[in-house]
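Office hours follow-up: a student asked to see two folded examples consecutively, so here they are.
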Amino acid sequence: MTADARLFAEAVALGSEVIWLHCYGERFVDLEAKRPKQAPRLPKANAPYIPAGGAIPSAPDPLPDTMDYDPAKRRLTIGRGYVENVTPEMWAYEVSGKQVLWHWFSYRRRDRSRPLIGDRRPPSPLDSIQPDHWLPEYTTDLIDLLHVLGRLIALEPAQADLLNRICAGPLRSAEELRAAGAFALPELAGVSTRKGKNNK
């Protein structure tokens, strides 16, 4: 942990922004920090949008089963609808090795079946109870998600810079923090807390 109070405060502020984004504006609201209690939004010039004629068809059309991305047009296509101004970084954004947009769509597409792996139980019959058409709230959720991804991507350079400055500055090891009674840290076998080592 950084021993520089200014860097610590900067990390807290940046972390609060990330949590606000992850919670879609429901938590860590701070009007002074421009974090209102609402779905986060990108600046208009960078915002994804559905143009006239691009709406994802609802009833009587069935749920779409395809999603594709055209990096040249910056267009995300879902079934016969599409969203403009989607960056390659939004499309490729991953968390824990999962592509976020694909994961989101997999729970809203027509075929939601998952391959059985090993001895995993077969899906519950309740899984088949789902809308038979694209719901308007799916479109709202998709636009909200794209705004959140765009803002998280925009924070990445500041996060990388802050991490570099923290690692280059004075640090407090887990042992020092534990000895000072700051808080109880679990024993982490094989993890170095010395400055300059990469923790895994």
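And the second, which I mentioned at the end of office hours:
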Amino acid sequence: MHDAAIESLPFDVWARDRNGVCVSQNSACYEHWGKLVGLRAEEVNAPPEVIAVWLGHAARALAGETVRSDVDYVIGGEVRHVHKILAPIREGDEIIGTLGVNLDLTELRRLERKLREAQRLETIGLLAGGVAHDINNIVMIILGMASMARRRVPAGSSLDSDLSTIETASRRAAAICNQLLAFAGKGHLDVELLELDAVVAETVRLVAASLSGIAIELDVARELAIEADATQLRQLIMNLVLNAAEAIGERHGTVTVRVVAASAEMVAAAAVDDVGFAPAPGIDYVALEVRDTGGGMTPETRLRIFEPFFTTKARGRGLGLAAALGTVRAHGGGLHVETRLGEGSSFRVLLPRATRRVATPAPAEPHASWRGSGHALVVDDDAEVAAAAARMLGELGFEPRVCRGGAEALAALDDAAAPAVVLMDLMMPGLDGSTTLRRLHARHPGLRVVLMSGFHDLAESPLDAQVLAKPFTLDELAHAVRSALS
């Protein structure tokens, strides 16, 4: 019974006599090391430095010590992390040999590393999202006031040119905030049905024009639709392709971009590699893979590639891969990375496959000169943002009133007739936008509301309200309010 129990163990177990000759081994030990019975440690096919360590441990065990050590062995062509125990075998007061056990901790170490990585990225994501939210509020004031001022100056004048420069710089700042929010998984998603092959081909064609000495190979399967934010999807593709090109550097190389229906093996690999990815049952996935012939990454670099502002490049902000991971997370996908130093890297993104067919969208109606009328309520806990939004609504023809939170807005509607429209921040302390919206609709079922925010998940937004992403221009505000009223 004792022998049967040892034989069934999934890890290496062996015993040697006092002279160092192996007298027994279980099946796991035989599978990993071959036949050891009858051999001394010096006769095993292993590097001399490894044998020297074995002999040193054996001497300590024969002296009465239980020796523990962590070692890395190459087993089956793969590096395995092993916790080794060598204990003395006693017969009465005499030590007659040694008992050895190898505990393979490779998977445990991998999971511990992934857990630490996930916790670190979550912490960084919370910080990045909070910073981006605050900056977005500031940028909204700048962009909103600049867009409103441009309506009051002659087109083509020097002041119009200066205001245009301010708008452009504001949008660049907003784009950086969007990358941070994407990493934090808090970016806005303007979801639509897309043919992935068409978006990939179009984006890669644009990127390829700026890459010198690098060949791009496209292998995209057709009729693989996904529901995604087109802007974020294009940014994701660009980030992965540019990252692959930068990994190749000044040398000539190839970046291969593939789009295929994800196999079960691909989904399983992503679930193992990406702690934040939990495949949904009954859902098919599409795989977008970007592979390069660059120099690959060290294990240390691999652990940090998704951290914001971490980069190994001479130029860049280190936000590309961080934003890519956030975009994948926001779309319910997973990301699997394979890399080997000197052999290049592969980034495989899995996204849920849509079952609907792609329809041609209707053209948008013009709204640049639209004006409204009546009372408007602005609800935001940030006084400067509320004041800027109120001025913009005034420019559109409304008579705005500002409330500094949900409770104040509810009280204001108790004292007056319902306004034509309510412009309300989604993220507020106390009563947030969603809670306030439900209470407003309970009292005034037909109330028109536009929610604004730079820090939320659209999947959790109320379905009966327009959503306006901060920062926004006067024209964008006009479009959202007009849509709400119509």
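Two things to take away from it. The domain at 109-183 is CATH 1.10.287 (Helix Hairpins). Residues 81 and 109 are 8 Å apart (CA to CA).
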